[in-house]
């Protein structure tokens, strides 16, 4: 599908859109997906609020309306559980519960002792912690509006509680890193990285549940029924243990992207604390400790890449995905040079792929159109763009920025793109696609 079929104003010939037109079209996507309290990732496929989507959306929304960006983040933080976790979905009460599966009845979060505030319906798992970074950048975009609304002083305690949950309850591997207990928690749901660990999970039978995602997206772009059967088994087991992190886990892993984003957010907490006149050193100390643990535990010198670690057998999973490039954005990363070489090498072909492929182009499980098994994603490419700038790779960053803009314009803000030919896949008018484009346009004009 090209931009001309969905956004006539954008690009008639497939050429990159004019920045002002692109900004208008991206803003229109975010306005259409706004529900009054927050922004849905996509009107059809994902009609509720998602955790890391909201953080990326905030990063774009701050250039449209500082006030709305603050609201976006605060509505998510308002669903924080008593134990500090931020749930991966906050269900919109105005949306019929059958519109998305698994819905609030499946998760039954209110039954957990650790659960959400009364009257708020959520899932029970988490997603990567981009929120403190989003809060800090939102403040920096308009410090006067932030101060007027007391934004930082309201969000800081909640963000600290969120990071405490990750540091204390989720250190399942005992090395200081946060673990995930479900592939959905990585945000990169069906990445081939999780295939091995998922083999141990007995799937629910396909006849025992009804998927809603296939009403809105092509089945070749989505996870399989077998994947879904396993996702549901894991989620139901966690739910049936009251979302207790000390209960036994069939699936548990340390993911490099989640932990790298936690480090970025911990640095952001230091910035927030400083702006509030509070001690910031503890956040810097924690960020430094997390960086050491990330490198010592997940960096594989032979592959020149960060790998996930399976906590069931204690071994690193020898599959290269874009998650392993996200640490490029971490300050003072000792292995940045090697990691940059991997990004430019055959596996990811930075500059010669459309966006950053989510999985190794030379890998045995590479599928250029299927969700997190190969396609390029805008949010991950946005973080890697930030990493390239941090590592002084300005030309690579400029090329990626141009690709992000062009791909968004030509696909009508697709959810993800085929990294080989740039064809749009999944949903259109996708919120974090629009948001990351808005942020990059703002960076350019600054
Ligand atoms: C996708 O995940 C959801 C489950 O959380 C789904 O497939 O239904 C992923 O791409 C995830 O990273 C994203 O946050 C979510 C909403 O955009 O969709």
Order of helices and strands: HHEHHEHHHHEHHEHHEEEHEHHEEH
Number of helices: 16
Taken as a percent bin, the fraction of beta residues is under 5%
Domains (count): 1
The backbone outline, from C-alpha atoms, is: globular
Pfam family, one: MGH1-like_GH
Family: Belongs to the glycosyl hydrolase 63 family.
Domain Mannosylglycerate hydrolase MGH1-like glycoside hydrolase: 46-433
Keywords: Glycosidase, Hydrolase
Helices, strands, pairings?
Layout: H1 3-6, H2 19-32, E1 49-50, H3 51-61, H4 66-77, E2 89-90, H5 104-107, H6 131-141, H7 143-148, H8 151-168, E3 179-180, H9 195-198, H10 225-240, E4 253-254, H11 256-275, H12 281-298, E5 299-300, E6 305-306, E7 309-310, H13 336-344, E8 376-377, H14 378-390, H15 394-411, E9 416-417, E10 424-425, H16 431-445
Antiparallel strand pairs: 1-2, 3-4, 4-7, 5-6, 8-9, 9-10
Helix pairs in contact: 2-16, 3-4, 3-6, 3-16, 4-6, 6-8, 6-11, 8-11, 11-12, 14-15, 15-16
Bound molecules: (2R)-3-hydroxy-2-(alpha-D-mannopyranosyloxy)propanoic acid.
